[in-house]
Every structure is written in structure tokens, then in C-alpha cells.
Amino acid sequence: MSGTFMGMPGMPGMPGMPERSDRPDAPELPATPALPDFPAFPDAARQAVGDPVLRANLRRATHTIRDKRARAVAELADWDRLRAAGKAIKDHTLRHLDRYLVQLEEAVTAAGGTVHWAADADEANRIVTGLVLATGHREVVKVKSMATQEIGLNEALEAAGIAAYETDLAELIVQLGHDRPSHILVPAIHRNRAEIREIFAAEMGRRGRPAPEGLGDDPRELAEAARLHLREKFLRAKVAVSGANFMVAETGTMVVFESEGNGRMCLTLPETLISVVGIEKVVPTFRDLEVFLQTLPRSSTAERMNPYTTMWTGLGPSRGADDDGPSAFHLVLLDNGRTDTLADEVGRQALRCIRCSACLNVCPVYERAGGHAYGSVYPGPIGAVLSPQLRGTGSAIDASLPYASTLCGACYEVCPVAIDIPEVLVHLRERVAQGGPVTREGIRVRIRPARGHTAERAAMRAARLLLDRPGALRAGERLLARARRLRPRRLPGPGRAWTDSRELPQLPAQSFRDWWARERGDRA
Amino acid sequence: MSSRDRVLGRIRRATAGYGAAPEPAVPRDYLRVHGVRTPAGTADLLAAHLAEYRARVHRTDGDGIAALLARLLAERGARTVLVPPGLPPYWLAEARATRVEDRPGSDPYELDAVDSVVTGCALAIAETGTIVLDAGPGQGRRRITLIPDHHVCVVRVPDQVVDSVPQALPLLDPARPLTWISGPSATSDIELDRVEGVHGPRTLEVVLLAGRAQ
Ligand code: SF4
User: Fold this and answer.
1) Distance CA A399, CA A39 (A)
2) Domains with residue ranges and CATH for chain B
3) Neighbour-count burial for B17-48, b at 16+ CB within 10 Å, e otherwise
4) Chain A closest CA to B57's CA: distance in Å?
5) Model's pTM, two decimal places?
6) For the LUD domain, which residue ranges apply (chain B) (predicted)?
7) How many Å apart are CA A474 and CA A460, to the nearest integer?
């Protein structure tokens, strides 16, 4: 069994490392493989906080999207009911996930597709690499897919001599810039137009059609350069790799939301289509899409509907004979830590996530720290609860992520599937600090409390980062202080909606500020 | 053990704790439609929402469609126009552009050389400003509305227009390939400036055709 790879390496010897369970027959898990260092959240965040260009880009972007989103959501009088329905559909699906995945497999197979199951990243990479090699082609076009980033597919393909081309404009910017994505929805949000011009002018020619002579930095010109550069790849591509936003168990239908048309290019022009999709993306019925078709675009890009949505079922009614779309379709169902997350009664709600990114744009910590600080393809509040569950809390970054929050509750407020991110954060803090039973790679183990002061140190460093920027903390900390006094009654003011619909999470005995004062006092 | 069995086994162990605890039903009390409109009001809303996404919206009837389509193609300077099987021939009766038949086997490079494409649709959704294609008669394969830079889509008003997403889904067949289009291709990836037309058509024109199908 291999460790879960999520686009960044882990570190051994950190809090939360599994130890022998209290069950005598429980096997000891192998340590997270020793890989090069990756800084914990606070260290990575500090770099971002010190970069004024990055901070300005982020701030403008998150505020713009946030305001537009609020207007798009306000247009639907039944938003709360759609949100409750979305939550309930996802919860129901998770509870019967085995049944719906088997149903999905039957439906996709009946429509001429082939279904593969991958327990971890290595297996998924082996399956996809093998499928591509079997076509005899050595290049693939890719439509933005977080699942394939999570498993490091591009690197695996490259190691097998296969060139993978990202086709989403932002992903292209990231790939040509030898960079990592920093946002779920707008992965190159940390780059401004001048930087993008530089990257295109320097790098496009090395991967295909060069940028036009004298390329300027107007977004229109830059988009045109990307169009020309990628069109030659789309027209000749024989193999494509995609993710999917939803899979319908009842019909075997796959659904991809996008804006640019690169998704449509990848999903319809090549001969072979390989979709790598997390097992949690299934929904029971075609009708269930009516909820997410309304909530996802509004929550994500703040539009009534995104420009393009593609739905396909296997090879179509004629099974590809009419040449409308690929003549071979493979679906790779990916676990890679999802079933371990499902085993956690508090944490499993993170699997409801539909990756809209609304929680990133309202998060005061994300706004300052930037996406890279989270050390995974899933940044922001959802990354802070998803990554330590998918990967375990064995690395410095994963042990510190549950502390990368002020618990202000804004992420829960905006989440279209009502994931109680603060509740999961508090739960994961307890796990880091106190240890306890968890499931890793399907096996129940007990993790130790963080050794020595490691957990406290992770939390402390996160606290210092937040406290050194009073603005980042104020809202959340005020809420916490009140909550401590009032618990378990309802919160006043902005906290009211937060407590209306659920129990407050167990709060730490001390606030960050108290803790910080004590620690700083000790040192002084 | 196969990975399929391994993953399904992990899921069953992970969900065993649910036991026989009663399960709440999915609440379906959200609205089927947002607001009360006449058919004309629904068509107006569709037009307004399409225009907001910078699609160009035109209105005509059976007597005017041939002249309108001829004009739209001429304004664009289109020398060639893709025609899917099943498109009513009279729609393009006055167009000067050379017709290119959509046929299986035509490769993407051929489609890339065509200036415009004219199609019908399966239905349109007013509340979201969306047209849906399902590869039915008059729509052709998915690729023909993707590669040419200019797409003219004809929607019959009122019989092809619904108000809302919940009204649309029961009318669609998930076995068919479905393409939902809301305005032209667009990106906001560069400093959140919206730019129309990255890979899909940069210009989307929607013709609202009054009168029922013959
Ligand atoms: S956690 Fe909720 S708000 Fe955040 S990306 Fe997922 S669905 Fe969207």
C-alpha cells in the first residue's frame, strides 16, 4: 500500500502519526514516506502575506466574486431550501455509496463505457497510463480536474513518456509558469496580466505554437494567444483526460460544468476519453441535477448558469457509431482516502463538497495566506478539512491545517451543501492534539496525541500568523469569545444564523488570543 | 482482492455505523419556478438573460426567418455555413453562404475552416438564459456548434421555452448527449476580466422564432 499523494509530499515524525491500535491484531501502518520538506501552513502563509502583489490580486479577486455571488444567490427566493436539498441528496448518497456506485457502474457499462476502480493514487495513475499507452498515442489534452491534480497524474504520465496538456486557460498559465494552482475556480488568481504575458511569451513556443509577436497584456489578446496555442492541440488530439462534477447512478450520465469550451473540446473531439472521478461525486437520479444546476454556478462563478455544461452517457444511444463524441470511454472511480473520510462521523460531511469555491472567497485567512499556503490542490477552508482527512494528519502541513482558521463561520454560511467546516476543524484539532481512532487505508487505527509540544507549536504558529494581522482575526475571534460565554445558547448578531441550524462545536478552553498572550508572556 | 471489492468493502465498513437509524427524506420543497409569467413574459426573460451573457438576440416569425438568417450570415461575412441534417430548408432559403453538410467522418480541421453554423435546439430555459442541444433533428453533432466561431441558434417561441431548470430536466433524455449553452464561450481567468470566446464560438446569436412547429 502506498501513501496518499495529493500534489505535495508529507513529512515523517509529526503529530498524528498512526501507532499500534488498542486492538492487538491491528497492523501497524507504514509511516508516511519521507519526502522533501513542505512547510507547514503558517510558514507558507507568511511568505504569501509578505508579497504585496499577491495579496492585492487575491483581495480584489475574492471580494469581487464574493459580492457578485451574493447577488446571484439573492435572486433565488428558495436558496435555503435548495441548500437543504443539496445537503440531503449528498448525505443520502454517502450513506448508500456502495449501492449507488454499483448502479453507476452497471449504467455506464450498459451504455458502452468501461469502469475501473482505483483504491489509491498509484493505482489510478497506473490505470490511466496503461489506457493511454494502449491507444498508441503519446499526448493527451486535459480539462481542469482536481482529482487528477490530487493524484499527480501529469507527473505519472510524463514519467511514462506521455505529454499532458492542460487546456483550461488558468491551468495553462499555471502549467506554462511551472507553478501550482492557488484557487479551486481561478487557479492562476495569484498572477496578474503582466506576469501572464511574460509566461506566454517565454514558454508557449517550447510546448507548441508560440505566442504571437509583440504580444500585449490585454486579457483579450492573452486569451486569443491561448486559443491559437491550444487549438492546434485540440484538433489533433486523440486522447483526452477529464474529471466530472457529477455522475448519475440511475442513468450513468457524466456531467461537466465549464466556461471556455475547452471542456467540450476534450469531451467530444478525441477518440478516447478517460474520466478520473472521486467516488463521492455520484448522485442517485437525473432529477437530482436540478438542485446542483441551480446552486453550483451561482455559488461558484456567481452566474445564473455557466456558459457550457456537457452531459454524456457512455458512448451515447448509438454507442459511438454516429461519430458524435469519443468511440471509447473509460471511467476511473477514485478512492484515495475518501472511504477513510467516510468512516469519520464528523468529518465525512466534507465529502458533500461540490467544489464551488465559495468558502475560499469569504475566508479571511485564505484572503491573506493565498492558496499555496495550504499545500494541496484543495486550498481554503475546504482544503483545511479535506486534506488532513484524505492524507491523514501525519505531516507538518496536515497537522497545522485544522488551525488555519479563525472559526468565524463564514465558510459554513456560504456553503451550498451546508458543510459545517468549523465543526470539522474543531474535530480535527482534537484529533491532532489528543489522538484517537481513525481509519487509514480502510483499517481502524489509533493515532497518538501529538508528541511533546508539536501540536501546540503548529497551533501557535498559526495563531501568531493570524494575530499579527489583527484584521484577519477580529471577526472570528469576537464570535468565539461570545460563543464561549453564551454556549450553548444561540449567538447574537452575525452568529445567529450559524447557530440556528445546528449545535455549536465544542470550543477550545482558551481563545487564540488568550493562548497567545500566555505564550508570549512566557517567553518575554 | 480486486480494487473494486476493496473500495466497496471499505465503504460498507465506513457506513455500517448508520445501522438501521431512520433516514430523513430529501426535502423537495424548493420552487419549481421562480415567479409567475405569461408565455410572452417567459420569452422576454430568456431574451434578457441571454443578452446579459452577451449573446445577440433576434426575434422573427416564419415569414421573416429566411431573410433574417441571410442577413446575420452576410453581416458576419460568412462564406460557408454548416447545416445539420433535419434543419428546415426554408430557414436558409435566402442565404448566400455555401452550405456544408454535417456528416460523420468530417474531421475537426474541416469544421475549423467553416465560418458559421445554424442549428435548432431541444429547449431553452428562461430563468438561466440557457439553450440545450441534444443532437436531435436540426442540431447535428456536438462538435459542429463548438468549432466554428459563429453559432446561430433558432428557438421556437413559445413551445421550446420553459421557465426553469426543474421544468427542463424531465423533457430531456439523458441517454442523448446534452450540451447546455448560456451565452458564448467566456473566461474570467485573467484578473477576473470577462473575455468572450476562448475555445467555443465567440459569437452566439439566438433567434426567437414565433409560431409553433408545423
Ligand atoms: S466546502 Fe462548500 S463552499 Fe467550499 S467549495 Fe465545497 S461546496 Fe463550495
Assistant:
1) 11
2) 34-210 (3.40.50.10420)
3) eeeeeeeeebeeebeeebeeeeeeebbebbbe
4) 16
5) 0.87
6) 112-209
7) 17
Closest-CA residue of chain B to A57: B191
B10 interfaces chain A, CB cutoff of 8 Å: yes
Q: Which residues of A touch B141 (CB under 8 A)?
A: 268, 322-325
Nearest CA to ligand 1 atom 7: A353
B185, B38 contact by CB (below 8 A): no
- Interface check for B19 against chain A (CB to CB < 8 A): the answer is no
As given in the structure block, the three cell numbers for residue A286 are 437525473
Please state, as a whole number, how many other Cβ atoms lie within 10 Å of the Cβ of residue B67. 13
The answer to whether the CB of A297 falls within 8 A of the CB of A305 is yes
Whether the CB of B16 is below 8 Å from some CB of chain A: the reply is: no
Q: Answer whether A268's CB lies under 8 Å from B146's CB.
A: yes
Given its phi and psi angles, is residue B42 left (phi above 0), alpha (psi -120 to 50 degrees) or beta? alpha
pLDDT tens-place string over residues A399-455: 888 888 888 899 999 999 999 999 999 999 888 888 888 999 999 999 887 664 455
- In our burial notation (b when 16+ CB lie closer than 10 A, e otherwise), range A100-137 reads bbebbbebbeebbbebbbbbbbbbbbebbbebbeebeb
Task: Name the helix (H) or strand (E) containing B93.
Answer: none
**Mutational pocket test of ligand 1: of A73, A376, A377, A382, the residue with most ligand atoms within 8 Å of the beta carbon:** A382
CA-nearest of A289, A238, A353 to B178 is A289
Q: Is A106 helix (H, G, I), strand (E, B) or coil?
A: helix
What pLDDT does A466 receive?
55
Please indicate whether, in this complex, the C-beta atoms of B30 and A85 are within 8 angstroms of each other. yes
Whether residues B165 and A265 touch (CB distance < 8 A) is answered with no
B81 membership: H or E segment, kind and range = strand B80-83
C-alpha cell, A461 = 504558529
Contact A323 B8 (CB under 8 A): no
For the stretch A44-86, pLDDT in tens is: 666 666 677 777 777 887 888 888 999 999 999 999 999 999 9
Which residues, given as ranges, of chain B have pLDDT below 70?
212-214
| Separation CA A396–CA A16 (nearest Å) | 10
Q: What pLDDT is recorded for position B213?
A: 52
- How, if at all, do strands A282-283 and A272-278 pair? unpaired
Comparing CB atoms, the residue among A286, A307, A442 nearest residue B186 is A307
CB A289 within 8 A of CB B141: no
Q: How far apart are CA A438 and CA B116, in angstroms?
A: 58
Which residue of chain B comes nearest to A186, CA vs CA? B189
- CA-to-CA distance for A167 and A230, rounded, in angstroms? 7
C-alpha cell at B75: 453581416
